[in-house]
TrEMBL record:
Methanolan biosynthesis EpsI domain: residues covered: 9-207
Name this protein carries in UniProt: Methanolan biosynthesis EpsI domain-containing protein
Pfam families the record matches: DUF3485
Source organism (scientific name): Fundidesulfovibrio magnetotacticus
NCBIfam families associated with the record: EpsI_fam
Amino acid sequence: MMRIHRYVLSILLVGAAGLFMGLHTTVPTYLPVPLEDFPASLAQWRLAREETFSPELLKVLRPTDYLYRVYTTNNGDAVHLYIGYHDGTRNAGQIHSPKNCLPGGGWYEVSSRKTSLPLPDGSSIPLVEAVYKHGETTEVMLYWFEAGGVEVTNEYAFKLKEVENSIFRGRRDAAFVRIGVTTRGDSLDAAFQQARRFLGDAWQSLRWHLPS
């Protein structure tokens, strides 16, 4: 019963948050550096290709700026990097969680867990490690949300952080970062290690390109 009460309370809080944010006006928060200037080389990783979304998908996501790239190494490792940035204005869409949008594309969640990953600069980042499947394709991913430069792993906490930032900081900017590795189902650990290694190599550039 307590769990149900918590769930209902979370829904009410998120609903109130959405109503408040719909009525509350804030100014845009601009990116320090455009995402198109994100480095093509990151340590051992090299840009293999950059993809653009269809107009139909962009109408749904409505990012202020976004980046979707594939990076590879000389030994054949490959990662998919997605960064979606929303500047907080009414023209920018809401962040979409993988838990909500991927099932609509035929993907289903095999597992997910929240963790904290140590980084080369001595800090750490809270993120979600997840496994999704689509037919015979398996993808492991690391992802997190950012609300006003603060990393968050929980969708409800993310919404509440947006409200807090709007009230106390006059900011509604948000970002979503996802690092994915396509793999066979029997090599999940190696795929996660690959994704973590890429994040370590890309971390400093991520911080330069997203608002703090």
